[in-house]
Amino acid sequence: xxxxxxxxxxxxxVKDFAKLNITTTEQLVRYFPRxxxxxxxxxxxxxxxxxxxxxxxxxxxSVEPVQNKGRYKLVRALLEQGRDNFTAVxxxxxxxxxxxxxxxxxxxxxxxNYYDRVSLVNPTFERLEGVTRLKGLVPVYPLRSGLAxxxxxxxxxxxxxxESFPTAIPSELCRRYGLMPLSEAFRAIxxxxxxxxxxxxAERIALEEYFALLSAFKLIKGDxxxxxxxxxxxxxxxxANFEKRFPFVFTPGxxxxxxAIYDDLTGPVRMNxxxxxxxxxxxxAVALTGIFMAVASGFQAVxxxxxxxxxxxxxxxxxxxFPDHRVGYLAGASTAKEKxxxxxxxxxGEVEILxxxxxxxxxxxxxxxxxxxxxxxxxxxxVAQRNALGEKGEGADVLVMSATPxxxxxxLIFYGDLDITTIPDxxxxxxxxxxxxxxxxxxxxxxxxxxxxxxxxxQAYFVCxxxxxxxxxxxxxxxxxxxxxxxxxGVRFALxxxxxxxxxxxxxxxxxxxxxxxALVATTVIEVGIDVPDATVMVIYDAERFGxxxxxxxxxxxxxxxxxxxxFLLVGKESEGGEARLNILKxxxxxFVLAEKDLEMRGGGDLLGTRQSGHIxxxxxxxxxxxxxxxxxxxxxxxxxxxxxxxxxxxxxAMQKYESLKDVVLN
Length: 667
Fold this sequence. Notes:
Elements: H1 11-18, H2 25-29, E1 35-38, E2 53-63, E3 67-68, E4 73-81, E5 84-91, H3 96-99, E6 103-114, E7 117-127, E8 137-140, H4 149-162, H5 171-176, H6 182-190, H7 195-221, H8 236-243, H9 252-265, E9 272-277, H10 283-295, E10 300-304, H11 308-321, E11 327-330, H12 336-348, E12 353-356, E13 370-375, H13 383-390, E14 397-402, H14 408-414, E15 419-423, E16 434-438, H15 443-455, E17 459-463, H16 477-487, E18 493-496, H17 502-513, E19 519-522, E20 535-540, H18 548-555, E21 566-570, H19 578-587, H20 591-602, H21 604-607, H22 610-613, H23 628-643, H24 647-657
Parallel strand pairs: 5-7, 9-14, 9-15, 10-12, 10-13, 11-12, 13-14, 16-21, 17-19, 17-20, 18-19, 20-21
Antiparallel strand pairs: 1-8, 2-4, 2-6, 3-4, 4-5, 6-7
Helix pairs in contact: 4-6, 6-7, 7-23, 7-24, 9-10, 18-20
């Protein structure tokens, strides 16, 4: 139902929700809480312990005018609880002062206790009358714009009354496995009475999503294998000679991957292979060797990259490695004339290797004889996009690559239609990156040291979890950019984030590589980026908010040159298990070990979120659930398909859920 039709919502509220991409009641009930406040766990100021998180009911007496402290702006509020006075302070969030009015509040934040003076640092807060009527665990939603927590809670409650919650899982299986009704799960996730109920609800909702997803995958995969249409004429000796073009000797893992590709291309069945390897394991060199097998046999090849920055880098590499073959480039930023001429050259077969972005997938891009397709950083592309690339050439062989390791068990679930090759080792020239966890008291020392590194001609990344810090919860890139510029005068800073246009991103990264900037403040948009050999420092703010695999990816942005490199992990607010995870990262450089640890410690909710899976699984953002949910869903799907339980209903539900896969044909 359109959100405008929901009782009690005015035009302004509807617009506020639209800023969160919520325009229907279904989207609203799927806007899950990021955390919960335990209303039974309030404490008195006298009971608080330094550096602990505390939930305190108190009276807000007054708010001081915003103070400009040079490098940051400070908001301070005077609070009372009985006869005890204490303060709350917010750094670089001046808008907070406009939201606070005298009255009764519930504050939640980290306690700082110096010289018997208690302060809450960057706490969240709500009017007490808005939460006293709530029992059990009170949901806390990720907000921005003009919305308040109580507004979202009331709207969600009304949306739950009008929404229906049909399940795609056959009723027979729901009964046998004792599954919670889906409607009950949605109500419980927004207002759980206990942690156990919240966990049960999250797992039930996640199970539904994975059931639809794995059903769609199974419909795509079927049991078909495609016979080979082309005969590759390249010889093993030619392949061995091609490998000598690289300035390093292939590792055993790379050699094994090249052998697997060669066997596929000279075998009777079309290749459909996933090549996964850790950061710096040399996947690109393996992919280029596969491209050589195609062009040496007289066919065309295509190399698809997720961003123009990466595509431009790969284009330069391809021209260098293939000087005797014409390499083309096609991206969104190409001019109309460049696109027209490139498409004509590709269709005529004049371009043997085409490198580009999503622009390559357009319907008017035709090849004369495309035989070999490479899809780089495949988790950035949907399943349909991967299929569309392969369909550019009849019976074309497809190699998809991922530098985001996931545990083997999950690889088999999500990439079961692919043969999987893993490069377990790294090139011998690749150095380890020293990793350290930096406490608050040492941040200024760290910045002083980084300034000295920059003075020696080195470069640095500063990464934040968000673009803006609208709730005072996490460091925002725009805020940090201004703060660092003030803290380190003379250092040339650039800013990079996801709201920038592709050309802006590409220009900024190119300028950084060309050393026009000394430091780059960015969001995780740089997780997949160009090689910057002089970048030796990676600083990650609020590191506990990232998963181990993502932290490992970010760390892999440095250590690409000959100089010693460093990764600094800065811890923000309290995060359950966060410190343990960061210590694992500090002592482990193996991405596959880290992925297994991530799965073990955080479950499937964080590890396989939208970042790693493209647009899929977007319906269960913020949920926390164990990896066992994924395997239960796989079991239910297998039984459903084997016994064809409610099969047409399941098929419709799966295809409706994942519209990009709607052209799947059943066997």
